[in-house]
Amino acid sequence: MTSDEYVIEADGARRCYAGGFEAVTGVTFSVARGEIFALLGTNGAGKTSTVELLEGLARPSDGTVRVLGHDPHRERAAVRPRIGVMLQEGGFPSDLTVTETVRMWAGCTTGARPVGEALELVGLGARAGVRVKQLSGGEKRRLDLALALLGRPEVLFLDEPSTGLDAEGRRDTWELVRQLRDGGTTVLLTTHYLEEAETLADRLAIMYQGRIVTAGTPAEVTAARPARIRFALPHGVTAGQLPLSLRAAEYDGRRVEIRTRELQEALGELLLWARETGVRLEGLDARSASLEEAFLDIASGTETVGV
Ligand SMILES: Nc1ncnc2c1ncn2[C@@H]1O[C@H](COP(=O)(O)OP(=O)(O)OP(=O)(O)O)[C@@H](O)[C@H]1O
Q1: What whole-number distance in Å separates Cα of residue 295 and Cα of residue 47?
Q2: Which protein residue's CA is at the shortest distance from atom 17 of ligand 1?
Q3: Ligand 1 center to residue 33 CA distance, Å?
Q4: How far apart are the CA of 210 and the centre of ligand 1, in A?
């Protein structure tokens, strides 16, 4: 892929707040046109600080960011009409109705969608006449999303789009984001929800303390990690009796955990050993690494490999 096919690019981008605290310590990634890219990370990892650089709300203290081939801060006039932004906290006048709010926004947007269409997209059609202050938290998030979509953006930035939504609202939002992607929109979202990243993102990056620790497709991020086999041995049998190749096990009394990059082989060997020795493996559980494990390893600070 050539660099002009990337619509979002960050190259060694850093962000330093007043007082000298460096919240983003040099991130590099790119997002291709029509891709959904998720930035994952614990609270304070630097996701919002990074996205704000891409939205042109701040300038990197070092490194570069480009959106649609432009510097989003210096060339804001070129970039702003082509992007949609859903911030973590929208904040609109609470006395206006939903329709009035969208209409007001549409007045400042070139080529805006019809108000009714924007509301239908996010499932707020039936709430059009309700005052914003009477909306639930989840409905306010959907109104935020409607405003971000008003100008039919080529690039959509979603900062925790499903926070505060119930399970159904979350799934509706995912479906809408997929439809937008299928229509050619590029989406960069931040999220705490691993399931959201796993089901929605074409590629993702996990941030920790201002930098990207790992990145790739959800399958790549998990494939790089060992699978896990857990079981308990009966009384009188110790982990030392396991075949040599399986002894890299951790064990605590009867409970054994084997971490392996060759799940099928290790499991086969274990089951063969159990049959030959007549040992019953209680609570046997074998699973490939999940995104959740990758995330938790990173969030606990045990994972420090950079990309
Ligand atoms: N205006 C600011 N001035 C100083 N420090 C800030 C400012 N905004 C954020 N920070 C700090 O920068 C770090 C990264 O914050 P940021 O909001 O980017 O993280 P995040 O990954 O988006 O977290 P969350 O998931 O909680 O939204 C945090 O330590 C935060 O306290």
Answers
A1: 14
A2: 48
A3: 28
A4: 9
Amino acid at the residue 135: L
Give Cβ neighbours of residue 211 (< 8 Å, ≥ 6 apart): 24, 25, 26, 27, 46, 306
Could you tell me which residues are beta bridge partners of residue 15?
24
24 CA from centroid of ligand 1 (Å): 9
pTM: 0.83
Binding site membership of 89 for ligand 1 (Cβ less than 6 Å): no
Strand partners, 40: 191, 206
- pLDDT digit string, tens, across residues 183-229: 999 999 999 888 899 889 999 999 999 999 999 999 888 887 888 89
Write the residue with the smallest CA distance to atom 10 of ligand 1: 23
Regarding an ipTM greater than 0.90, the answer is: yes
- Rounded to the nearest 10°, the torsion over CA 259, 261, 265, 266 is -10
Distance 273 CA to ligand 1 centre (A): 51
Closest listed residue to residue 127, CA positions, set 96, 148, 91, 150: 96
Residue nearest to atom 31 of ligand 1 (CA): 44
Q: What's the gap in Å between 49 CA and the centre of ligand 1?
A: 6
Q: Any alpha helices (H) in 60-114, and if so which ranges?
A: 76-79, 98-107
Grouping H, G, I as helix, E, B as strand and the rest as coil, residue 282 is strand
Return d(Cα 243, Cα 256) in angstroms, integer: 13
Q: How many residues does the chain have?
A: 307
Nearest CA to ligand 1 atom 4: 17
Ligand 1 touching residue 43 (CB < 6 A): yes
25 lines ligand 1 (CB under 6 A): no
Question: Which stretches within the chain are classed as H helix?
Answer: 47-54, 76-79, 98-107, 115-121, 137-149, 167-182, 194-200, 218-223, 263-277, 291-299
Question: What is the rounded CA–CA span in Å between residue 78 and residue 284?
Answer: 58
